[in-house]
Amino acid sequence: MRGRTDGRPLVxxxxxxxxxxxxxxxxxxxxxxxxxxxxxxIVVDDGSRDTTAEAVEAAAEGDPxxxxxxxxxSGIVAALNAGLAAARGVLVARMDAxxxxxxxxxxRQVALLEARPDVGVASCRVAxxxxxxxxxxxxxxxxWLNRLCEPxxxxxxxxxxxxxxxxxxxxxxxxVDRLGGYRETGWPEDYELWLRWMDAGVRFAKVxxxxxxxxxxxxxxxxxxxRYGEDRFYRCKCHYLARWLRREVDGRRSVFLWGAGRVTxxxxxxxxxxxxxLAGYVDVDAKKIGGRAGGVPVIGPExxxxxxxxxxxxxxxxRGARELIRAxxxxxxxxxxxxxxxxx
Length: 344
What we know:
This protein has helices at 24-32, 52-60, 76-86, 105-115, 136-146, 151-156, 173-179, 189-199, 221-224, 230-248, 262-267, 270-273, 321-331, and strands at residues 11-17, 39-46, 66-71, 91-94, 100-101, 119-129, 170-172, 203-215, 254-258, 278-282, 292-293, 296-299, 310-314, 340-342. The protein is of the alpha/beta class.
């Protein structure tokens, strides 16, 4: 990828922004401080009503590598796609206005993609930028995703949650040309993109060092926009999980959902809408075992058929349950990613 003579930058960094005058200057400065210098930064101002544009221009200080695109407010998906349309780089990196990239971020991610042609998306470990006590769930999410670095790990955990932080990624531009960019689905645009690309066989990996500070500001879209609500998140998850099940699970095997509680059944109800017929629920609650939930039988773990006859979706979201279910299924000969997925 390096050594090109076509005049195009190696990396296009896309930064969508709205009303972020207080933080965008720091974000821009963190890109200007990168050890890799062959980049362009495309800041897409999505209808800011404050002095965001002026803050960007001040932070750019005439640097020709930085372009500001001003648009009427159209939403995050339209802003991201506008950035992609303007990008000239062979590689595309993401950045958000309230985050901070460490100096070696771009260089290390480019090195990963150059060394591993089988990898299409390179992320990194991230530092939690928030109050650990007030945002305990977000802090634990960061701890979880930082444990996932290799392609098989990231693919295995993709139905639990988004296994990469959106502003931490760098990907090959050809993926957008071949598989499409961001879509307006009403679901989280980043999670939908990762699941769609993984469904197409794209491999993700991470640089093992922390190269981005991921801020947890109250104004983050994931806290304010309904597309990031739990129901939308599970609709997206169920859509791509169902696609995988229809394609990969032999018709002679039955699909079971581990978890017969109302919350789990509600979260995964979209599987039926996507054409997945559940043979039963698996639960450890003696009061539920032997009964029916929504017309579907509830069995105990000991009554679950072997992996040659069953595929299990583990949907219990209670903290600690994921590890217990994974251990039990593995003990019984199930192979994760082939015979079961953990999905909560």
